[in-house]
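Section 3.1: Structural characterization of target chains.
Under the original work plan, the team committed to producing a structural model for every single-chain target entering the pipeline before any wet-lab resources were allocated. The record below documents one such target. The sequence was received from the expression subgroup and is listed exactly as submitted; it comprises 368 residues.
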Amino acid sequence: MVPDEQRSWLGLRMVRGVGPVIYRGLLQAFGEPAAVFAASRRALEAAGARPEVAGAIRAFDDWGPVDQQLERLKRSGAGLVTWNAPAYPPNLREIHDPPPFLFAHGAVLPRDMLAVAVVGSRYVSAYGLRMARELTEGLVRHGLTVVSGMARGTDAQVHWTALRAGGRTFAVIGSGIDVVYPSEHKALFHKISTQGAVVTELLMGTQPDAENFPSRNRIISGLALGTVVIEAAEKSGSLITARLAADQGREVFAVPGNVGTQTSKGTNRLIKAGATLVESADDLIEQLAGQLGRAVQPPVPPPPLPREMTADEQRVFDLLSWEPAHVDELTVRLSVAPERVSELLLELELKGLAKRVPGQCYVRQVTP
């Protein structure tokens, strides 16, 4: 897409009163944002724009911030995937309020329409981590893309398991594409970009404020054929994602948990409300068989894990033991930048040589 076209796409989103639903209606009426800006006020109102919104479109002349967005986008190395582009995820295009465009760091491929979202608690238990790993490994072996939110806990386990298994994964973030949150996931961000994409609808520079995440969750569920919740408290963002999936007409799954455990109350309540109980990836594949058709791949064994370590990875590995070591402790002992420590730990995770445990701690996984 040429810069002038990107300019009009971003500009229309920055007009006061133009949200995803209105934007979609205008696109359906006029085809592209440039035509929206060229339309008369009467034509805009005939297309469903309220009078004040039509007036704001006609009066819009704030192109300085738009050009700043384009410059930041260029520096970030990300791209803009617009609603009418072939690369725009078809599952997402079908929801009521699709984002008019996505900022994407990485590649969006046709095969990514065969996707399942896997979400859960940031304060995940050992059981939850195991289920996240087993479900993700099974989905990847069937050739499905796994979607999550790149948060601490369950999301991080989902992403790195997909990467380690050689699969594709999408991370939907609640900030601008140039704002990595949480900060210790910078290495994970870049790894995901090589085997999938990190995506967001939020403008460049947007901080990860709490109000961004409910709307971000509709993209997680919208990208997927179904959403599975592994662990969730009674008031949880994962439950919001499940509700949005149901509203979008998508399948909702839940992993049963121990009765009485706080992080199981939400998932058990979902099952009571009609969510499909799942215990394995095969359960998910069976439930989604009608939508997957013959496109889904038969299970394949995971690729062999590389075991050779670089000198820097060896330094980190030598500090790990069977007792959990906090990432801050490792950073101090190594005397290197925290971002570099996170990157090295991720590399060791992907090689099966280290394992993340609750509390931002790591343990040695195997003896090389």
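The mean pLDDT is 90.
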